[in-house]
Amino acid sequence: MQIGRFYQIQKTLLQYGLDELIPQTHRPWYIRLLRKSAFWLRNQHADQPMGIRLRLALQSLGPVWIKLGQMLSTRRDLLPAEWANELAKLQDKVEPFPGEQAQVLIEQALGLSSIHDKFPEFSLQPLASASIAQVHAAKMLQVDGPDADVVIKVIRPGIRKQILADLALMDTAAEAAARFLPDGKRLRPREVVAEYRKTILDELDLQREAANAIQLRRNFMDSDSLYIPYVYSDDCRINVMVMERIYGIPVSDIEALKAQGTDMELLAKRGVEVFFTQVFRDSFFHADMHPGNIFVSRETPNNPKYIGIDCGIVGTLNSEDKRYLAENFVAFFNRDYRKVAQLHLDSGWVPADTNVEEFESAIRTVCEPIFQKPLADISFGHVLLNLFSTARRFNMQVQPQLVLLQKTLLYIEGLGRQLYPQLDLWKTAKPFLENWLQQQIGLPALWQQLKENAPFWAEKLPQMPTLLHRVLEQLPKQQGMMLQLMQQQQLQKERQAARLLSAIGAGSMAIVAALLFSSGTMLAAAAVATGALFFAAKAVWS
């Protein structure tokens, strides 16, 4: 199975001429000869621009590759504009599967004899088609009101098999990378692939996505910054999800946003604030924030609000990761590179014997040039490459649990670059993080912990006298047992020491007896040998 899929991937890349992306200087003669020998895999789209070829190749390879193209489409500082524009089509313009097939899947999932029993209107033409699912517009019958405008999301048929095949190849490649590449152990490719496996397989469960959307909606229920559509949870299945239809402007449609008078600066700032709120306040963040999943409300353009859909991928962070990240961000913003280096050491992400001064100097070299510049002048892609070199130099390990966060940060940067290139990312994020850190320490944090734990202590308080009495009652017994155990350990040590001395005595006397025997002093040798036997017996039986 893996060999067949590997051949299919190579065949697709070659038939779309993507081998031309490798510079001639990096193609030795044997690679060029091998390419020419595969004459049946010639470039069949030589008349198309490279951007179109790249999009079509990724699209034909399936969801794992489409998601790679989605992320690359936001990196306009790394790719030519025409390439990024083509890859942006992968966000919601993937080739759909037939609407009739989607209708059958919906009827089967919801147990309907006809889709019109529940949805009087259903559009066979999908509204959008993505790598794993597509959505159809419909009107749903309501018992206590007019029909509701909804969208129905349907998982592509047979997609799980294709994903599992690609994941098997990725597992094999990760195993080889971990074993043979110089940075294999540090980069932890197997752990990263395992994290990606969990993420993409979770996307195949629309009931999980529905639960994620409900949680995010609750977190931002009264927010002016983000709106999550209502999910009809009773009509959600593992391969079908029904949710409220929204009528927003795609965040990538800059002209439409400007035409309605949207405050672009405020919109960009709110994007950053929404991300950091999800990460640090809620520990639950939308981790697939490419432009195809983000819309802007048509209401109050001077006070713009985001609309988020497709909550299949979410990330979570524990309290230690949040604290570590927040302190690192604030230290970066304050240009306190010494603290950044020390935080890396304290977290165990770099070896304990790392020279702090050298690490601090390396971080300063990478990060100092990016400050006090608008977002348009900062290339985070180049910064990441430099940080990668620094990580390699200091043997810093990749943290798989942060892969989703890192990917989301890339999306946020790409989104901010498109909306308002003059945005000062640091100035926007720093106050939020400083405020969050202040809430985690001092009297306010202590009071918050007391309030959160009050129900627990209120439940345990009536039991405290009984528990205290039991502890006091058991204390003398436990002390006696501890004393007895310590005495037994001391006696055991004394016995071991006596055995060791007896063994040394037996060995020494045996050597002396051998020397006397070799010199002909038989009587003395016999006496000493008898003593050696005595000490040996004492060492065994004492």
Polypeptide structure, described:
- The protein is α+β, with helices and mostly antiparallel strands and 542 residues long.
- It folds into four domains: 2-88, no CATH class; 99-258, no CATH class; 259-440, no CATH class; 485-541.
- The chain has helices at residues 2-15, 29-37, 50-61, 63-73, 81-88, 99-110, 159-180, 184-187, 189-202, 206-219, 254-259, 264-282, 319-333, 337-347, 356-367, 380-393, 403-419, 425-440, 442-460, 464-519, 522-541; strands at residues 121-122, 128-129, 133-140, 148-155, 226-227, 240-244, 249-250, 284-286, 294-296, 306-308, 314-316.
- Strands 1, 2, 3, 4 and 6 form a five-stranded antiparallel β-sheet that branches. It has a four-stranded mixed β-sheet with strand order 5-10-9-7.
- α1 (2-15) packs across α7 (159-180) and α12 packs antiparallel against α17 (403-419).
- 27% of the residues are buried.
Entry summary:
It is an enzyme of class 2 (transferase). With 542 residues, this protein is of the alpha+beta class.
Number of domains: 4
Q: Give the end-to-end Cα distance, rounded to a whole number of Å.
A: 66 Å
The low-confidence parts are none
Rg, Å, rounded = 34 Å
Q: Helix- and strand-based class?
A: alpha+beta
How would you sum up the major sheet? Answer: 5 strands, antiparallel
State mean pLDDT (0 to 100 scale): 80
Shape: extended
The fraction of residues assigned to DSSP E strands is 5-15%
| Count of β-strands | 11
How helix-rich are the residues, as a percent range?
55-70%
Number of helices: 21
Quaternary organization: single chain
Domain ABC1 atypical kinase-like: 89-343
Binding site for ATP: 127-135, 153
Family: Belongs to the protein kinase superfamily. ADCK protein kinase family. Belongs to the ABC1 family. UbiB subfamily.
Subcellular location: Cell membrane
